[in-house]
Amino acid sequence: MAKILLIEDDQDLTVLIHDALESEKHLVEVAHSGLDGRECLLMSKYDAVILDWDLPGLSGLEVLKAFRAAGGNTPVMFLTGMADLADKEIGFTAGGDDYLTKPFEMKELILRLRAILRRPAQMQESILKVRDLELNAGQHRLLKNGAELKLFPKEFTLLEFLMRHPNQIFSADNLLKHVWHSDSSAGVETLRQSLARLRQTIDDDRDNPLIKTIYGVGYRLEP
Length: 223
Hints:
Layout: E1 3-7, H1 11-23, E2 27-31, H2 34-43, E3 48-52, H3 60-69, E4 76-80, H4 85-93, E5 98-101, H5 106-117, E6 127-130, E7 133-136, E8 141-144, E9 147-149, H6 153-164, E10 169-170, H7 172-180, H8 188-202, E11 211-214, E12 218-221
Parallel strand pairs: 1-2, 1-3, 3-4, 4-5
Antiparallel strand pairs: 6-7, 7-8, 8-9, 10-12, 11-12
Helix pairs in contact: 2-3, 6-7, 6-8
């Protein structure tokens, strides 16, 4: 299982790619604009990025250049209708790892994604540790005092996000935006239910909970 960020403004194509990647057991997050995609890359870690070239707000090329300039080394596959060799050269020079021209066969996208996920840089696991929890983003595993805990995918993503930003307060709207992204059916009650299940699974210290509610403001993870 890999954590994939899909940045694509075509809603129909997004659904097709999302479903195909989930059938491969990947965890998929979605952004529909260059600005949202750039923010996702700033806030979370991914095993691979599938990036449309022609995006509203910021182009895919601009998103990639900013990501590489900030030190991001996650492999990135471009999706684009531009098939000229000169365009491909621009994409690879900017730091792209692969380049798939639209229209394409979904099987080819999956095969290319498998190839970039096998590259050595991706063998480095991202491990986060807070108190007695150890979260391995690469393996999608969570340990508490060495014992593995099971979480639903969104709860795992929510915990990972909070562990990457300890002591920061996030409003419900911010958490919905960063964790649920394009899921328009998710609301504050969805977040509350996920937090309740997450706390029940990971937290046994009621006097000093890991995830605290700051009433009227939001939520904060305290190491």
